[in-house]
Amino acid sequence: MGGADKMPAGRLSWLxxxxxxxxxxxxxxxxxxxNTHYDFVIKETNVTRLCQEKTILAVxxxxxxxxxxARKDDVVIVNxxxxxxxNITLHWHGVDQPRNPWSDGPEYITQCPIQPGANFxxxxxxxxxxGTLWWxxxxxxxxxxxxxxxxxxxxxxxxxxxxxxxxEMPIILGELWNVDVEQVLLESQxxxxxxxxxxxxxxxxxxxxxxxxxxxxTFRMLVEHGKTYLLRVINAGLTxxxxxxxxGHRLTVxxxxxxxxxxxxxxxxxxxxxxxxxxxxxxxxxxxxxxxNNRYYMAASPFFTNIGLPVNDKxxxxxxxxxxxxxxxxxxxxxxxxxxNDTAAAAAYTSxxxxxxxxxHPIDVPMxxxxxxxxxxxxxxxxxxxxxxxxxxxxxxxTRLAASLNNVxxxxxxxxxxxxxxxxxxxxxxLDFPNKPSFVFxxxxxxxxxxxxxxxxxxxxxxxEYGTVVEVVFQDTAILxxxxxxxxxxxxxxxxxxxxxxxxxxxxxxxxYNLVDPPYQNTVSVPTGGWTTMRFRAAxxxxxxxxxxxxxxxxxxxxxVFIVKNGxxxxxxxxxxxxxxxxx
Length: 584
What we know:
Pfam families: Cu-oxidase, Cu-oxidase_2, Cu-oxidase_3. By secondary structure, the protein is mainly beta. It has three domains: about 30-155, Immunoglobulin-like (Sandwich), CATH 2.60.40.420; about 160-360, Immunoglobulin-like (Sandwich); about 370-570, Immunoglobulin-like (Sandwich). The chain is about 5% helix and about 35% strand. The chain is built from five helices and 32 strands. It has a six-stranded mixed beta sheet, with no helix packed on it. A six-stranded mixed beta sheet has the order 21-20-25-30-27-28. A five-stranded mixed beta sheet has the order 11-19-18-13-16, covered by helices on one side.
């Protein structure tokens, strides 16, 4: 938590459970007492950022929120008390939740929201996950301030497949608005225009040295020469993919999305909203007064390619500081980061992600596919409603911005889809989400015809039999500008077996797939003007949301739902509905 926010002494125990301090001290696994029950109180909290005090929603008065610690195969209970002023839900991003969609969290997909004054208990079931995940609100734009890290350590008796770090540190990338994010969303919905860009990007809740009124609260990570540190980097931002680097230090990437990777060493990373990256940092700069600086900026900058849209292009900084070196008089060294639109730099990083494959950490890439899907990703428009004045693109101010998958702009209902499925309530959703786009054109050619912009709303879902191997090719389109999209699937991790630029070629591109050691992720960045192929085995019965993790695209309709039917054995069937589910 930032040093600018005061906290009662009684909350110190929460800090020891892993909330990052502005002075760079956080609970290491040895320090943090293991806890399988957490109480999350969501309420309005005052914070001071960018020269002004503002009110935000936060958990237990902390921004970012508390870290959840677990071990592989743990079950963690989180009691959520909504003392805020609006409906809310929480999601445990990257946790498969086997047979338990009831605790997955997306609003009106697997549950009705927790209303003000109400409470709900989530049951988080960890199985294969090991590494870093995170939790966040899954209602409106609430996750801007309602989020935190999930740290999953190996089982007792097991060890990391790399050097045990001296300390571990969550590094949460986020963004801030000076105005209430709820009003940002409502204004966009009222006008049909784009969402107001944020006022700052942040590291662990702080904008850093170069933002107004922020220098005294900049996050600091304290290190000692010769020690190894594990950075658990999370992109919790709503809007941008980010480059991240630390001046004077290379980073060895060892994991992503709660799974291990073959280690590789880089000068920078690229991380999409929703993703996590685990990296080893060797504190190896001289501390003998030889003239080296004892402070180094860690910095993050946006990666954004759609030049037709406004963007918060501000960098955010934190400081890596050697405690066993003489203080330096000058400013910290600053890292070299790629340019904001450096697609080649982003692709060069992403291409190095490969699963660690060992006896202790095997993988199981499906070789045969039962169901093939080609899913186009588009920014679109919808007609402005009667008696509305809209400011969406196109002539006459008569459209509002929308988004779609296979030209279906997803529309949430007032009954959650899981209940509708469980109780066979008709009229809530349709079963005909298409396996391919309704019309084919040169998806990635610049400036496609205006007629392609228009989409249609619908609540269409994809139903698959238990155990089906599904291959999804995500295809970006240039409608209203090509851009990358972080696509996230609830309930599953998936193997990212292929990617490329241009239009996917079903006859040629499968020959380029990596079926040996593809990364196993829950959120994948579909490249600008390109495609990505992922495969998963649908062995988790339930209702599972799939959506872009740019939040404005989610609310515009760049979503769908997989319904995985029950299998034949009790262990392949959804758990019964808990009696305390929130009511709509």
